[in-house]
From TrEMBL:
Protein name: LysR substrate-binding domain-containing protein
Gene3D superfamilies: 3.40.190.290
Organism per entry: Luteolibacter arcticus
Protein origin, superkingdom: Bacteria
Phylogenetic placement of the source organism: Bacteria, Pseudomonadati, Verrucomicrobiota, Verrucomicrobiia, Verrucomicrobiales
Length: 45
């Protein structure tokens, strides 16, 4: 059944030119993604 189905793990990369200023929305996404992944990895997700 679909309730027990889990997708394959995939690597995730956030790549940006660190020496340049990021638009606010891009910086917000990077910050969100990092925190989300930290929580997921800590939870064993």
């Amino acid at each position: 059944m679909l309730l027990s189905w889990r997708p394959k793990d995939l690597p995730v990369h956030v790549v940006y030119a660190g020496h340049r200023l990021l638009p606010t929305r891009a910086r917000a996404f990077v910050d969100f993604a990092v925190e989300f992944m930290k929580q997921e990895l800590a939870a064993g997700g």
